[in-house]
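assembly run, all chains below
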Amino acid sequence: MTLRLLSALVLGAAALAGAQDVAVQGGLVLAGRGQEPLTGGGVVVRDGKVVTLSHEFPDGLRVDRYPGAVITPGFVDLRTHLGGLGDLTEAAEAFALDVDALDAVDPKSREFAQALRAGITSCAVVPGDAAVFAGRGGLLKTAGGARLEGAALAKLSLTADVLRDDRAPTSAVMAYSELRARLEAGHQDGEDAFAAFARGSIPGLCTVDDAGHARRMLELEQALGLRLILHLDPRPEPEFGRLKLAGQPVVLGPYDLDADPLTLALPQQLAAQRAELCFTSAAPLRDPRAQRVSALLAVGAGLDPDVALDALTGAPARALGLGDRIGTLAAGADGDLAVWSAHPLEAGARLLAVYVDGRRVYRRPASGGAQ
Amino acid sequence: MRRSSLFLLALCAGALSLQAAPRVIRGRVHTAAGQTFAPGAVVVDEGKIAWVGPLADLPDVGDAPVLDLADVQVTPGLIDAAVPAGDGSVEASSEVVPHLKLADALSLSGAIWGRLAAQGVTTVYVTSNPASVIGSQGALVGTGREPALLAHPGDVKLTLSNEAWRRGQRNGRPFRDSAGMTARRPNTRMGLIWVLREALMDAQRGVETPAAQALGATLAGQHGLRVHARQRHDLETALRLADEFGIKKLCFEEATEAYHCLDLLRGRDVEVIFGPMFMEPLGSQARTGEAEHPCLKTPLLLEQAQIPFCLTATDRLDEGLAEQAMWAMRYGLEFDAALRAVTQSPARVLGILDRTGTLEVGKQADLVVWSGQPFAATSKPLLVLRGGRAIYRDAEQVDDASWDTDAAAGEAPEGPEQPRRQNF
Amino acid sequence: MRTLLLSCFAALLAPASAQNLVITNATIPDAPGKSAVLVAGGKIVQLAEGPPRVPGRLVKLDAQGATLVAGRIDAWAEVGGNSGLGTALDAFDPYDRDFLRRAYSQGVTALCLTPNHARDGINGLAAVIRLLPEAAKPEDRVVSDASALCAGLGVGEGALTRAQRWGELRESFAEAKRYREAWLDYEEELAEYVEKLPATAAVDSGTKPAAEAPKKRGKPEKKAAPAKDETKKDEPKAPKQPPRDRGKDAMVRVLAREIPLRLHVERAADVINALELAEAFDLRLVLEGGREAYLAARELAGADVAVVLGPAIPATVTGAQPDEYARGESAPRSGAGWQALVPLRDAEDGAARLDAAGVTLAVGSGSLDASPQVALNAGLYAAGGLAPEQAEAAVTRTAAEVLGVGAELGRVAQGYRADLVLLDARGGVVATVVDGRLVYRKDAP
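ok done. output:
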């Protein structure tokens, strides 16, 4: 009897804290690539998942109304160190085969709340750039720091950061050679992150600072069937614009307001080749809002705003193989959405509210005053 | 295997982008294969030389565009067989790294490839930096603003010059003060030879390390062997080591004091990639102290001694390959011999003479149109083609429309313009 | 859109000299009801409800409903470097084509150049320039060669050092005040002396009005006195001229309320100190930075002190900050940084709260490299809660007023400079006009 009562209580609590039913209505819903923009309607969320986009909502469903607002999927940032307890850059070995960044993440860190207030609802927390294979990272929801099970990505780097005097490699030649040799040797049955990346079961985010490295990594991707996400170092490199990157996930940013024209022209150049652009904030090294600012700067330099919005939502989700779950408001996706006062690629757009799994986790204070 | 097919792919992709229509270049044509046509003409079609000969015999090419500038002369594209990779490419965790490939870290950025093209150089062999005792395998690169990795022949390079032991205490990247694994041997010449000998012994015994395996393949004759040596006794030591380990053929880089041992070299199966010539040693030459007694007549002496040689500018881009040929001529070498030493001979050393190195029908259209006498101080390249594509073009003299031009090839040769930044 | 492009093309082909331009079919928030602007001689000469009928050759620009606003002004384009005496004007390269192209593409047409704020003490004069594509004389670009005297408290130092900096700043103004008084006394004595001279000599000096110099730059009569020394017998003695100090001359202009003191402060405590300094020396004050200024909003509004805000989002969280003194994570300059690791109390809606309290706000970029993005920066303040109209004004009208050039720049109004920007519905720049010349249009080939 008591047991039954208890379990009922527990179940009830779970329903309250977890899944939520709500309809979020605004002036315009931008549901993601391949979805028609919906004017005047809203998003129906049940059990934390998007059910449909509609003008009419079922009876009895709570409806949060934001007149004139623009509703987008929550942003996805592929490259952060949010919540890291200390440095997430383990450089003792050039090949840290199974380091897991999530082992050093505090899910209750305030940094997640900051990211949330920048519209970021999911973030990949990955190790830093100081090792050729720096280990693995995982995907977290910024509301509460809950892990997305099954979502993992490897972190690689072919930059000057991996070269050190106190261990091999000291040269880019050796760095790439060893990486290739290890990947070609194959680790079909290995349990570690490197093996998972080598056999293509998890994607790998590879930071490069030179177009030559980018080309070589793309060759390896094709030859070995890897799942590669290229991260192009935000410093200006004229050769990046000549890379052939159709369909290739490419992470760019963060860009500062003083970024030079060569750097800011790159997103448009790559978009013209139909690369899958993703913007990152590199939070907490930068303010998480730097993700949207990077996209704004790229739009100011000529990038299509729709492509830029996809680069903040759908593209990074697809790069992780989660394109039907986050970064979109298609039916069945997580109920992660951001409500803006205007199109988020207008500089002055304000974030009015954020929902994660159908729960409202942020709401803008009424006016002017402090929270 | 997989990689070589990738290179083929890259080459095919390159071929696809070539212009289809034939084009004619008129001028005094030096084929570097023993002929000079004055006046002559070259017909370039589909990236290859379709015809070359005296102007009077020029076949009918319909309304193909003709580049007809006064007083121009045409030579094959220049080839530098030994441009050393930068200090940053030195792997300091081991002094013996013949299993590494420079191609694996070749930067396709930077102004250097464009500058080489502007100097008339169409192909270079990037050789390992001499700071490693046995360095990485080199890479063959086509120049231009859009450089192309052509191949990595797999040649292994032994260093007998003193970079490998003078920098022994910090054999990694120079100008760093950190001690660590880079504080290692060798730090004397005898130590250097011992490291060499030990590595060669390991290779002979077939030790199961990547380095010994790669070196073993070289000893078995699958790849060429280069030796970086400047002083006479280093050249002699190299020949002694070659005898000891049964190495038949050697290729010397730099060989500053080759003039001292002409007789010794003449009797052997060697190639000499000689250079650079200079009045004052600069850069790495100055640091080594090994190049203080260069003999500017060396190319002439090598030619007279019938020792196969070619010229290199190494990393002295300020005195490029054309200037090296000029120096050789200034100190007695005939023009034809100087031209061969920067075109045909390096192509032979690199094993690409079937594709380039001379102006002959069927070869790649790698050529330079000079404003006057090639290598003369008053001449400059007006147009440089690699595989029929203009990788450098003097925008004042040669218009864009008549050549399928690389992006930005028709700019000043100083290198790509960087965004100007405020420097306060 | 096609028409717009065509007429733009015509504008580019037209000769470079000042031309007459008419912009039609524009939405002009500064002048509701009007839709056309006529430009002649680089100035706005007429605003009209319909296409004005003007004789003579005109370049026509059909805005097709786009919004016409004044060219954006970066109220804080820091050029780095500082001499203490110099003007930031000298550190700007007006021939940097890349920079001009970037600025035009974002509708930025004027800058307030300021010296580096990171050093403590007096850093030099701020200047306002327009980004003219060409200028017959370099001075043509200059709207104000002394918009303000800039000063800072230094960054990367500890709290105790900060107290010392305030002391030094107060002391230097006290010195400047003594210097100014010495000169005022001298001028007064000189005037008396000239009066007492015999009539012949008095006629000589009568050509130079004695009252001209003292209050302004403190510029003295050059050598009025020595010539008269020879004729002295029982005549009054000529007063002794105080030594000249160029650095203090600039401070005298501040003490005379001719130009404001522009002080870089981020912390609320420093804001209060700055207000006290201004009151003690009777200065006009403008604050720069002010990321904690919202905590002293009421005091700022009461003293009628304007704030020039910098980057809305700090470039890095852990790295260099506008006030490194706050974070101390980058290596402090003086080794005292360890004692002052107090983070700045940033608030996303700080600008909105300042505005609500009635504080005048301008927005700058904080560095010359970021100047082209100043409108985006203002937009980010709007995203943080500042009213969008206020954010736009902070890089146009209000910015011009704060910089003391409000009669020339910052508005679409008759008599104002024809530095104009056309914006599309999303706020993107469609075309930029400087001095009546089209210098940028979107979709340029």
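Chain B has twelve helices and 17 strands.

Residues 1-20, 168-182, 410-424 of chain B have pLDDT under 50 and may be disordered.

not gonna interpret more than that til we talk
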